[in-house]
Amino acid sequence: MTIRFDEAYALEQDRADVLAGFRDAFYLREGVIYLDGNSLGLASRPAERALLDALEDWKTHAIDGWTSGERPWFFTAERLGERLAPLVGAHADEVIATGSITANIHQLLATFYRPAGTRTRILADELNFPTDIYAMQSQVELHGYSAKTHLVRVPSRDGRTLDEDDIIARMSEEVAVILLPAVLYRSGQLLDMPRLTREAHARGILIGFDLAHSIGSVPHALHDWGVDFAVWCNYKHLNGGPGAVGGLYVHRRHLGGKPGLAGWFSSDKRKQFDMAHELSPASTAGAFQMGTPHLFSSAPLLGALELFERAGIERIRAKSLRQTDYMMALAERELVPHGFTITNPVEHARRGGHVCLEHDEAARIAKAMKAHGVIPDYREPNVIRVAPIALYTSYREIREAIQRIGSIMATREYARYENRRDVVA
Asked: Which of 76, 115, 153, 387 would suit a FRET pair with 298, their CA atoms being 20 to 30 Å apart?
C-alpha cells in the first residue's frame, strides 16, 4: 500500500471505500472524531430500532412476549448465538449470547478447570486484562490452591507483547487449562491462536481465548482451529451498546455435559418447564447459560449484527488493516517527532484493530484530545489507544485526528491538564 500524506489522498480513499455507506447507519457527532470504538462502539440506527422493538414487544405482549410475536424472547440467546457464530468461525450450536466476559470466564473455568493429579495449574499471561486475572485467581482459590503458585503468568519480554515461544515453553504437565487474550488490550498484538491451540493439545491441555478486542475486527476459525472455549463482549467492535450481553463459544466435542455452574436457562428447552429438580442440560452451548437472559441488553445486538452480515468480516478486516496502516504512517510522520512511540506490532498477522501510542504525558494528551474533539482511549501507565472502525471511520477523519494531536503537541496545550487518569478512561 503506497501512502501519501496530502488531503487529496484521504479523499481518494474515502471515495474508493466499498464500506463507506455503512457510516450513515451510525450516530456521529458533528466535529467529533470517535476513535474509541475498541472500548465502546457507537450507536447505530439498526441497534436503536431493535431496542425499540423489544420495548414495543414488552408493551404489547407482556408475559406472552417470551413465546409470542415475531421475536419470542425465549429464543433470543440462541438467535444471537447463531448470528455471532460466523464472526468467530463456529457452528451455531457452539455459540450462545449470555452473561458478561467475567461471568462467562467463571462459567467456563468452573466447567473445564478440573485439577487432578499433576495438572492443577492455570496458565495465563502478565499482560492480560485485570478481570480475566481476577476470575482465574478466584477459580484457583476455590479449588483450595494459592493463586501465587497455581496461576502461572507468562512474562513479557518488552512489557508490551507476548512471545508465543515463551507461552509454549510454559505448557508443562502441571497445567490443566490455558486462558489467553486473542488481542492484547494495550498493545493490540494478535496472538497466533491456531499455533497455540495445536501446541496446547499436543500436551493434553485445554485452551481458551478472550476475544474482547478481536471479535468484530478480526476473522476467527475457532472450530477448525480446535479451540476448546472462548468468551467475549459485544459492546466494542460489535456496537451492541453499553453493558451489552456477552458471548461464549464451546467446541462441539465438549457439548452435551453438565455445565460447571448450572441454572434454569442451562436446560434443554424442551424440558425447561417440566420444573424438575434434576437438570437436563441443553445439548448446545445454551447449556452454559445460567439465569434469565437480559433482553434489553441483548436487543441492540440483534440490530447491530445486521451491519456485519451485510459488510462481511473479511472486508471489515481488510479495511481495518488499511486504515491502521494509514494511521501509523501519519503518526510516524507527525507524532513521533513529538515523543510518541508506536508500540503495536506492525505486521498484519500480529495486529488487531487498534493503534497503540505511548507517551510520557499520555494522560494529559488524552484529555487535550477530547477537548479538541478527538475521542481516544487511555490506559495506564502511558498508553493512548486509537481505533479507526471500518464501519464508520473515514480516512479524512484519521488524517484530521493526527493533525489535531500534532497541533496539541506543537502548542504544548496538553500541559494545562492534570497528569491523572481519573477523568480520562
From this structure: 387
The contacts of residue 387 (CB under 8 Å, 6+ apart) are 35, 36, 37, 38, 39, 353, 354, 355, 377
- Cell matching residue 54: 423489544
Nearest by Cα to 125 from 199, 200, 174, 182: 182
Q: Please confirm whether the linkage preceding 381 is cis (ω < 30° from 0).
A: yes
| Ranges of H-type helices in 341-418 | 362-371, 395-410
Q: How distant, in Å, are the alpha carbons of 159, 163, 164, 167, 172 from that of 156?
A: 5, 7, 10, 10, 18
Q: Active-site residue numbers?
A: 129, 210, 235-236, 385
Grid coordinates representing 379? 490506559
Q: How far apart are CA 298 and CA 90, in angstroms?
A: 20
**Residue among 367, 354, 360 at smallest CA distance from 382:** 360
Distances (CA, A) of 232 to 50, 87, 136, 317, 320: 21, 11, 16, 18, 19
Q: Left (φ > 0), alpha (ψ -120 to 50) or beta: where does 342 sit? A: beta
Q: Mean pLDDT of successive 10-residue segments in the chain (425 residues)?
A: 89 96 98 98 98 97 94 95 98 98 98 97 98 98 98 98 98 98 98 98 98 98 98 98 98 97 94 92 96 95 98 98 98 98 97 98 97 96 97 98 98 89 52
CA-nearest of 48, 49, 74 to 61 is: 74
- CA–CA distance, 219 with 307 (Å, rounded to integer): 15
What interhelical angle do 395-410 and 7-16 show, nearest 10? 150
CA distance 280 to 268: 6
Grid coordinates in use for 233? 463482549
CB contact set of 51 (below 8 Å; sequence gap of 6+): 241, 296, 299, 300, 303
Contacts of 144 (CB under 8 A, 6+ apart): none
